[in-house]
Amino acid sequence: MIITVASGKGGTGKTTVAVNLAIATEATIYDCDVEEPNANIFLKANLQKIEDVFLMNPVFDLNKCTFCRECAEFCRYHAIAVLPSDILFFPELCSGCGGCKIVCKHDAIEEGKRKIGEIYHGKNEIEIYQGLLNIGEARATPVINQLKKHVDKNGIAILDAPPGNGCPAIETIHGSDFVILVTEPTPFGLHDLKIAVGIVRKFNIPFGVIINRHGIGDDSVEKYCKDEGIEILMKIPYSREIAELYSKGIPFVKEIKEWQKKFVELYEAIK
Ligand code: SF4
Ligand code: SF4
Asked: Rounded to an integer, what distance in angstroms lies between the CA atom of residue 40 and that of residue 65?
């Protein structure tokens, strides 16, 4: 079963929920927040690199090129500029779609590749897979896509999605059996939750909401969920004890046994 923990807004406690749920259920966690993976701060596994992630990049053969500009006109990412007798290629803009190679009628483009990230694996109590996007790279989705190839659908897989509602979050959510949307009871939390709900509904994936830091802010998230018929799966209180454990990098299910039980019950309810 694949459960993705996502949030429209950063800083809501998404990774906290993902890690605690994974530990309580002895699941494997996949840190898909590849621009800033932080689940292992809590797990403290000895991560080992298991593979590199490459993106297809065009390589131009100027001896065959007629400088017709068709590749540049095709490229929606403006990664190619054709000059009268040269081609400028901007790799950081290239999505690796391969379209320029297809449209070139003069066989002047070869498939090259460029390393954009790495995949790591480790184990400490539970298994963790982590993607890491190279600094300065703009395209997180190929790293997430490759990371997700390690998901074992026969076990319990908890995917920690990148924050926000952009392509990396959508790439993570796609193909999940269930999505947990973590939010906080504030106007910002509600605003971004509504966008995230719209995305999950488009994919037709069952989902529910966890309200973190319950007790701060207002009840607008609860009212919204009630009006929309969205189940609130769990409320995690605004608690000094939980905050202190978080600040020490300790998952709170390990220290507060009632929460271990609550996360197991959460998983059973989702199942
Ligand atoms: S489409 Fe092919 S021939 Fe035309 S400019 Fe691009 S690489 Fe050169
Ligand atoms: S592979 Fe796609 S994104 Fe990259 S240069 Fe070619 S057309 Fe543009």
From this structure: 48
Domains in the chain, number = 2
Q: How far is the CA of 56 from the centre of ligand 1 (A)?
A: 17
Give residue-wise pLDDT tens across range 156-185.
Answer: 999 999 988 889 999 999 999 999 999 999
Helix ranges, the chain (H): 14-25, 39-43, 70-74, 99-103, 141-148, 167-173, 187-203, 220-228, 240-247, 257-270
Within a domain: 180? yes
Whether 109 is in the pocket of ligand 2, judged by its Cβ within 6 Å, is no
Distances (CA, A) of 11 to 7, 32, 164, 224: 9, 15, 10, 20
Q: 231-250 pLDDT, tens per residue? A: 999 999 999 999 999 999 99
- If asked whether residues 102 and 170 sit together in one domain, one would say no
Residues of the chain with pLDDT under 70: none
Q: Residue 212 C-alpha to ligand 1 middle, in angstroms?
A: 53
Q: Angle at Cα 118 formed by Cα 115 and Cα 119, nearest 5°?
A: 145
Q: What is the pLDDT of residue 153?
A: 84
